[in-house]
Write a structure and sequence with these properties.
- The complex is a heterodimer of chains A (205) and B (192).
- The longest helix of chain A has 11 residues.
- With 205 residues, chain A is α+β, with helices and mostly antiparallel strands.
- Chain A contains four helices and eight strands, in the order αααββββββββα.
- In chain A, 19% of the residues lie in helices and 20% in strands.
- Chain B is mainly α and 192 residues long.
- The two termini of chain B are 38 Å apart.
- In chain B, 36% of the residues are buried.
- Classes of the chains: A alpha+beta (205), B mainly alpha (192).
- At the A-B interface, helix 1 and helix 2 of A face helix 1, helix 2, helix 3, helix 4 and helix 5 of B.
């Protein structure tokens, strides 16, 4: 079987052959086009030639098995103030990690990510780590909270880390949380100006 | 999340004009690409997500390669979509290790479908890009974000593996196919 025959045979089982597309000249396309072009450009403009790619590939090797289940259980807690009147927020369970998708062994580039309603974001410095928790003193909430500290309990994580980058005391991190899960894959990580500018774009500064 | 509206300017108008050109070029084939790889109910959302990324990253779209570049974006949006599903529905966890299955084929060719399923996921995607999207290796390179040379090699090898499996499946091993099955399985192990 030569290439042409192979290609023809494959095309006969093309599932798109029996589905219809919305025509580009139709009203649905026109509405989508306008909607998209009315969407503000959140990402701060930087020259593409100098913008670092913040793509993180799934750590098939680096995080390997751990990444499949990495399961940090986090508790978001308000620290008590001097007057002791502040209430501790209800505990929230966070979990790290995504199952490795064998068909898509790559994360979405961070600059491609579109914030989802309910996305939580904060910047903070790790002030303590234990075998089962990481305590982050929050310096800035981008959205979703006002606590002074966030505690990430990592009892089920072999190595508390974000995409393989370990939390270290004194280190500053930018963290996103959605649906109770810390988002990894480059969406959280050590703080740097590029990631912070992206956060500001997502959360409106 | 703030929603600032950009000030109209000649730059904005030029950007919109370019996006309209890209949109017209990619809208329909992008729908086909996505419909081949995800459930019909999600396809429109994934296409819209991909086009929004194209709009936001319009400056990065390479001239003459807008379509494969958009396929690459859609590929990542599909992955993102799946991750969202994973977060939302614990029941789906049992299926996470499974590749994205396309909808039913236009015609049934059980032998080919079975053999295609035996290919490593990377090979299968390359074969689909070649046969269904009818991309050249340099375009496949853009989709997969690899070098054109690497793409050419991988396309060649993927086609060879598919053809060898078809011959093996038909009980007609070719003279060059000795050990082909072993090689394919070995590749799958590496890929997964």
């Amino acid at each position: 079987m030569n290439d042409d025959e192979l290609q023809q045979r494959l095309r006969r089982i093309d599932p798109a052959a029996r589905s219809s597309n919305h025509p580009v000249a139709g009203p649905r396309a026109a509405a989508l086009l306008e909607t998209i072009m009315d969407t503000p450009l959140h990402i701060p403009e930087t020259p593409s030639s100098t913008r670092p790619r913040r793509t993180r590939r799934w750590a098939a090797a680096a995080v390997a098995g751990a990444a499949v289940v990495v399961a940090g259980v986090g508790a978001l807690a308000l620290t008590a103030g001097d007057d002791g009147t502040r209430e501790t927020a209800a505990s929230v369970t966070y979990s790290f990690g995504e199952a490795v998708d064998p068909t898509m062994a790559m994360c979405l580039p961070v600059t491609d990510y579109m914030p989802t309603p309910g996305l939580i974001g904060f910047k903070g410095t790790v002030v303590a780590t234990t075998g089962t928790s990481v305590t982050v003193e929050v310096s800035k909430w981008f959205a979703g909270g006002d606590a002074d500290q966030v505690q990430l309990n990592t009892t089920d994580v072999a190595i508390p880390a974000l995409d393989g980058v370990e939390f270290v005391v004194g280190g500053e991190y930018l963290v996103t949380v959605l649906d109770g899960q810390v988002l990894t894959c480059g969406l959280s990580g050590p703080a740097d100006p590029v990631l912070e500018s992206i956060f500001e774009g997502w959360f409106g500064g | 999340m703030s929603r600032r509206r950009a000030e109209p300017s000649p730059v904005d108008r030029a950007r919109r004009a370019r996006f309209e050109r890209v949109f017209r070029e990619v809208y329909e084939p992008l729908q086909a690409y996505v419909r081949r790889r995800c459930d019909p109910a999600s396809a429109d959302d994934v296409v819209a997500d991909a086009l929004l990324v194209v709009w936001r990253r319009l400056d990065d779209v390479p001239d003459g390669l807008a379509l494969p570049w958009s396929y690459g974006v859609a590929r990542r949006c599909l992955a993102n979509h799946r991750r969202g599903d994973q977060r939302r529905d614990a029941l789906v966890e049992r299926l996470q290790a499974e590749p994205i299955l396309p909808p039913s084929p236009a015609e049934h060719d059980e032998e080919l479908e079975a053999v295609l399923a035996q290919l490593a996921v990377d090979d299968r995607e390359i074969v689909r890009l070649w046969a269904w999207e009818q991309l050249q290796p340099r375009e496949i390179a853009v989709v997969l974000d690899i070098t054109p040379n690497a793409a050419a090699i991988r396309v060649h090898r993927a086609k060879q593996r598919l053809a060898a499996l078809l011959r093996t499946d038909a009980g007609v091993p070719g003279k060059d196919d000795e050990g082909a099955e072993h090689k394919v399985l070995g590749h799958r192990e590496e890929a997964t």
